[in-house]
Amino acid sequence: MSRRGWGDGVANLTKLGDGAQRIAETMLRATGGRSVLIRVPRPGAMNDVTEQLGLAAAAFDDVELAPCALRVLTEAGDRVELQVAARAAATAAGGDDLSPVLAWFAGAVGVVVDGELLRILSVTARDLAGVPTVYRLELARPAAEL
User: Fold this and answer.
1) Do the beta carbons of residue 50 and residue 56 sit within 8 Å?
2) What is the pTM of this model?
């Protein structure tokens, strides 16, 4: 048995995951290539008494994500699918692992698409060899607008 077998396999999986992420980014650019904004709550100040008492207004940041592709899921246009490149999401969320990115999406207020804030209904990750390549978000307009 070759001594190179195991080490080469791990290196190949790493290269495969990186290549898959690059392919996903190219596909997203070719099928839409747009950017969106994720609206996330701004972290609170530790020693701010007004925040601790709930007297301060909540603050939010809009974080740009690109490349993305958008697809309408229903005839009425009330639900859409957003595919986001995994590396862009990981950079914005501040972590490369799947869990922090999913938690970041879960804590988001919504997604701003063409100036309209849409709710996040679900988030799933597509991966290859355990490396996320694309995040799929199902989005909906707020019920008051339907």
Assistant:
1) yes
2) 0.76
Q: Quick one: which of 129, 127, 117, 121 has its CA closest to 105?
A: 121
**What is the number of domains present in the chain?**
1
Tens digit of pLDDT per residue, the chain (146 long)?
444 444 554 455 556 667 777 777 877 788 878 999 999 988 766 667 776 677 767 788 999 999 999 999 988 889 999 999 988 998 888 866 667 899 999 999 999 999 999 999 999 998 877 788 899 999 998 765 54
Count of helices and strands (H, E) across the chain: 4, 6
What is the 8-class DSSP label of residue 50? H
Phi, psi of 5 (to 5 degrees): -55, -50
Note down the domain range covering 112: 4-145
